[in-house]
Amino acid sequence: MAVLRQLALLLWKNYTLQKRKVLVTVLELFLPLLFSGILIWLRLKIQSENVPNATIYPGQSIQELPLFFTFPPPGDTWELAYIPSHSDAAKTVTETVRRALVINMRVRSFPSEKDFEDYIRYDNRSSSVLAAVVFEHPFNHSKDPLPLAVKYHLRFSYTRRNYMWTQTGSFFLKETEGWHTTSLFPLFPNPGPREPTSPDGGEPGYIREGFLAVQHAVDRAIMQYHADAATHQLFQRLTVTIKRFPYPPFIADPFLVAIQYQLPLLLLLSFTYTALTIARAVVQEKERRLKVTARIDFPTL
């Protein structure tokens, strides 16, 4: 009963305060209604579109690098790095990759991955490095062969090189950079296919940045290293292409895209005035010692 009595007194107190400040009460009720009305108006104005057919994209070739990389960097030429530098097998594979990419490119080697990172950080010529092939094998001698189970990874630039291929079609970079390898899905997934106007899959640009072309060239060079004649005959009969998965029929609703960015802001604006009013009232009570006075005058509270 004591808890219910305290709750009733608290409600009576708040009701009395709100009744004394009519304008404040009206604003606290009007702002949430206003922004709710804005959401309803947007929902009525923005119409959804039903896409009844599956979205199918054409195939993309990864036999060569994109056209952008046929133009060398200013005052230099593209570089293809490999690690470790003391391995003849790694050098042979990297030279085969260079010839397969069919652009003017030179090969540079580094003893370790740390040396390569230092070169990227501190050497002004590092901007011409297209990619680095890092073989994850302990080559004890320069003549050690490449194992059948090859492990390697590719190191590409964090920032995009192919500025001609942005999502907006302009020459300006997007705000987000990097490859986002830790994310399986976008933070705000859109209804429908991701970047629907990009047959190559869009960001982060595995095709337009040359990643898949280099990866395919490395895989093919490793096959040639172990079985040159068989690999040559194999690729005479087939062509490797990349194609996006078809997307099933969906409902394109731009309102959902807009609301996932604007809803938190609208909620914040709706209750900003209420929060400021409550904070002001609490501060005034503390300054005027109203709670202490109430306890002294009305001990039953």
Write a concise keyword list for the protein shown above.
alpha/beta, 11% strand, elongated, two-stranded antiparallel sheet, single chain, 301 residues, 2 domains, four-stranded mixed β-sheet
Account of the protein in words:
This protein has two domains: 2-48 and 254-297; 60-252, no CATH class. The protein has eight helices and eight strands. The chain has helices at residues 2-20, 22-45, 88-101, 113-122, 211-226, 228-237, 254-288, 290-297; strands spanning 49-51, 60-61, 78-83, 105-109, 129-135, 152-156, 241-242, 250-252. The strands form three sheets. It has a four-stranded mixed beta sheet, sandwiched between helices. Strands 1-8 form a two-stranded antiparallel ribbon.
